[in-house]
Automatic annotation (TrEMBL):
PANTHER family to which the protein is assigned, alphabetical: TYROSINE-PROTEIN PHOSPHATASE YWQE
Family that this chain belongs to: Belongs to the metallo-dependent hydrolases superfamily. CpsB/CapC family.
Keywords from the named record: Hydrolase
GO MF terms, alphabetically ordered: manganese ion binding; protein tyrosine phosphatase activity
Pfam families with a match to the protein in the record: CpsB_CapC
Keyword Cytoplasm: no
Reactions the enzyme catalyzes: O-phospho-L-tyrosyl-[protein] + H2O = L-tyrosyl-[protein] + phosphate
Name of the protein this chain belongs to: protein-tyrosine-phosphatase
Lineage: superkingdom: Bacteria
EC number, UniProt record: 3.1.3.48
Annotated InterPro entries: Caps_polysacc_synth_CpsB/CapC, Pol/histidinol_Pase-like
Length: 248
């Protein structure tokens, strides 16, 4: 799928060129010590500084809600979020909101009757296992839509089980696709990078996020990162979409 025979094209460093300026990050793991993301408030501060240097100005924190983290629910995570914002200067605290990244797993049905942590009144960030779809994926997505919530599928490029026909089917159902920014620069496997470029060029993505967990891999990826200049419009459109739907 998504093969490229790109003619030799000029490339730019998107960060130096300001393509990400003003990005409202709708998916990141900056809430400390609640999942596999930031381990401490200090690490969260460093990540915020780093992301600001890339042009990312606002962050919706999206800790995992999944079987692996049984204590993560809206009540617990709201309390941790309050602690974090209380430790920040007012201008920094106001650049943060709390959402969550929901795993479509066997506990998802139960989660839907609990208080929800959505990205907005009508958008929820969801993911699946990387290797295999959950039973009844399309039904789970439809259940959300019946509640008036639009699913935002986190990093579609990372699902090894998804082929072009799957992307078409999920997209056709009205699910929004969120690209992980660093997928474009080899943060994961080479096939993930290839899928990310292919899906971006084919116009599948609606939204953009960092999915930042820790500082180290990101600093390495950013230095020397380049993209073909023809992708500037695609990337800037996603930045604008984020701002249109999720500004605060
Ligand atoms: Fe994530």
């Amino acid at each position: 799928m998504f093969s490229f025979f790109r003619r030799k094209e000029k490339r730019h460093n998107p960060f130096e060129q300001g393509w990400l300026n003003g990005l409202v990050d709708i998916h990141c793991h900056l809430l400390p010590a609640v999942d596999d993301g930031s381990k401490s408030i200090e690490e969260t501060f460093s990540l915020m500084d780093f992301l600001h240097s890339l042009g990312v100005t606002r962050h919706i924190l999206t800790p995992h809600i999944m079987e692996d983290y049984p204590t993560n629910n809206a009540v617990f995570l709201r309390a941790r979020f309050k602690e974090l914002t209380a430790s920040l200067p007012a201008d920094r605290a106001s650049s943060l909101r709390l959402g969550a990244e929901y795993m479509l797993d066997s506990t998802f049905g139960r989660r839907l009757v609990e208080p929800l942590l959505t990205l907005s009144d009508r958008h929820m960030l969801v993911e699946t296992s990387y290797m295999a779809p959950p039973m009844g994926l399309m039904g789970l997505l439809a259940d959300l839509q019946l509640k008036g919530i639009t699913p935002v599928l986190a990093h579609p490029e990372r699902y090894v089980y998804m082929e072009e026909k799957d992307y078409v089917a999920v997209k056709k159902q009205g699910v929004l696709f969120q690209l992980n920014l660093f997928s474009l620069f080899g943060a994961y496997s080479s096939s993930t990078t290839e899928k990310a470029h292919g899906l971006l060029e084919a116009g599948y993505y609606d939204l953009l996020a960092t999915d930042a967990h820790h500082l180290n891999p990101l600093t390495n990826l950013v230095s020397g990162a380049t993209l073909p200049i023809s992708m500037e419009g695609d990337v800037r459109t996603l930045v604008e979409n984020n701002a249109r739907l999720f500004s605060f």
